[in-house]
Design goal:
Blueprint lengths: L6 H86 L1
């Protein structure tokens, strides 16, 4: 009970497969191009980040210095309040 294959049907099947292969090949080429562009853009971003790194390090250093200066200002404020309290105490005598 085999159905005999028609020659035209087989040719059409091969053409369909050939077209599908061509389309698949084109899609893979597009994906390759996209991947290459992504890779280039990533490399550019990495280079830009590397060029910014010294400035980012400086910002971190300044932030640490500002924090230390802020702590010193709080200590100085507390000390000046103690001195003021002592001075007022001495004034009352």
């Amino acid at each position: 009970n085999r159905v005999p294959l028609k020659n035209t049907s087989t040719c059409e099947d091969y053409r369909l497969l050939e077209n599908m292969n061509k389309l698949t090949s084109l899609k893979y080429m597009e994906m390759k191009d996209i991947s290459i562009n992504i890779s280039r853009n990533l490399q550019d971003l990495n280079n830009k980040y590397a060029s910014l790194q010294p400035y980012l390090d400086q910002i971190n250093q300044i932030e640490e210095q500002v924090s230390a200066l802020e702590q010193a200002a709080y200590k100085l404020d507390a000390y000046s309040k103690k001195l003021e309290a002592r001075f007022k105490k001495l004034e009352k005598r």
